Amino acid sequence: MQPEFWHERWRTGQIGFHQSAADRNLARHWAGLELAAGSRVFVPLCGKSLDMLWLRDQGHAVVGVELSAVALEAFCLENGVPARRRARGGFEVYEAVNLELLCGDFFALAPAALGDVAAVYDRAALISWPRNCEPRMLSTWPLS
Q1: Does the reported pTM lie above 0.85?
Q2: Cβ distance 94 to 82 under 8 Å?
Q3: Which residue(s) pair with 87 in the sheet?
Q4: CA-CA distance, 72 to 103, in Å (whole number)?
């Protein structure tokens, strides 16, 4: 997929993949991971997913990456998240308590930019990639 495809989807509100509540399967199965409080959770292609708030409410530090600034700005506005914005490593970063949202190209994200990640949560990001796209970078990320 070309980045412009996703930018257009967010600009025109064609986001049928967005859910209006945290995913029920997340709540049902998350405890089985037995992550320590404060563990860092990575959410790739996060959009404006309410799952990030749910994860934060469980005591985790959440880091998401999203191509669309429209999505991240909507997330902050719609959920009353007072995020501070700054540039870092080629990304625009939205920072709030236990929440860090990186706006930019997922494929340009270096593992060091994420810090120590204990878990990766993906509800539907990977299925949005073309079949010939291999997420090689993911297999090299050390998870603590």
Answers
A1: no
A2: no
A3: 92
A4: 7
